[in-house]
Amino acid sequence: MATAALRLASQFPTTTTPAAGRRQRRTAATVRCGLADFIGGDFVRPDLGRFLEDVENHKALAIYPPHEGGYEGRYLTRLRYQGYRFLDLSARGLGDPETTLTKIHPVCPPHLGRQPIARWYFPPEVDYRLSLLPPNAKGLVVWIIEAKVLSKAELQFLALLPSLRPKVRVIAECGNWRKFVWKPLREIAGLPSSEEESQIGQPSQ
């Protein structure tokens, strides 16, 4: 990949107390920029096809987008082109993922100190969205932001959710990196891969 070098002259002299009549020396810094710094890393790295394959193979991925954001939208749009519908959730305030996503769960609205404490019951988020999918939809993608605050047990349930609901795919934003990368959520949660599970219990040759 082509790189360009930019020389930037510092406005501050190298010596703090220069002698009278002596020229002040200026330092020059070299900044190396790649092609991705000018037109965007998602255009340079043609990995959208590999991302779609990993979504279908692993069914649950942990993604690490850059801090500035924006890159994950290109991968989300490609999944939408494939026929997936989305359920966007934030890990903060999600509660127990198993109860919120797959069971009837209670929600207590704020009483503000005056109203009586009430409890409302909501249907399972995933099952309710699956029932509303149109016939031509390929499936439901549960996209969870700020998943880095979830415990290992909660991540393990999210990794196993596609096995409980075959039409569900899980994308969890588990952190940030300098470029858009992803890993199987099973690996992040400490679970064996599907291939390793299939080999468990088989007699060794």
Descriptive notes:
It is globular, with a radius of gyration of 25 Å. With 205 residues, the protein is α/β, with parallel strands linked by helices. A five-stranded mixed β-sheet has the order 4-7-8-3-9, sandwiched between helices. A two-stranded antiparallel ribbon has the order 1-2. Strands 5-6 form a two-stranded antiparallel ribbon. It is built from nine helices and nine strands.
Helix/strand layout:
Elements: E1 3-13, E2 26-34, H1 36-39, H2 41-44, H3 48-58, E3 60-64, H4 72-81, E4 84-90, H5 97-102, E5 105-107, E6 120-122, H6 125-131, E7 139-145, H7 152-164, E8 168-173, E9 181-184, H8 185-189, H9 194-199
Parallel strand pairs: 3-8, 4-7, 7-8
Antiparallel strand pairs: 1-2, 3-9, 5-6
